[in-house]
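Note to self: keep these together.
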Amino acid sequence: MRLSLALGLLLTGLAVLAAGLSFLWTPGDVTQLAIADKLLPPSGEHWLGTDQLGRDMLSMIMVGARTSIAVALVAVGIGMGLGVPLGLIAAAFQRSWLDEIIMRGNDLIFAFPSLVIAILITAAFGPSAVNAIIAIGIFNIPVFARITRGSALPIWTLDYIRAARVAGKGAARISLQHILPNIANILIVQGTIQFSLGILAEAGLSYVGLGAQPPTPSWGRMLAEAQTMISLAPHVAIVPGLAIVLTVLGLNLLGDGLRDALDPRLRGSR
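Structure:
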């Protein structure tokens, strides 16, 4: 196992473990305020210290991991669930009016970053984790549509695909039986990368107040609330910042390791 894959699995596993464990146990109650214990440095009682409201930072990080992972995972699921079929359709009917409509629609979505989409959705429905999921998910659709179409087009020119068409198989059947299995490794790697970007996007939206709302902990909002107290208690900003950095780094290393493991050309060159 390559070092990048092992390290990626370790960092990602720690984030997932923290999120999963938070359903069963946390060192403290994230909804319980203890103003007398505010801004305490890391200690034996509070391993990562406390925040400006006296809440245990380790507990906040654990529950915040649950929020970030859930938002990113569902958003990537939306992107893959809609983008991959659109990309397969565009590749199957390349250079047709259907292909043109799908790709120009993707260009239109790309013109609006996820933050702008989130602002538009929030203006209509109000800030929430659900609206953050919708915004990030919408932005992921053209990403998966483009990479699916680009990966599928060369396969459509291969001889065994021509033979399948001559045998009477339709475009939908060929796409599901022959195209999709051959590009699955590319989609898995891209899904890992978009997962890491989804965590960054969720943190960014929460930072500006468009993500998960109080009292639900969020790494991005923890950073926003800590920015005025960095000089008094640096740990309140360092802890959530490190959580974001290490989780995103782990997912990127995992994606890089999966690419090396799943791509036979890269496997053979090492």
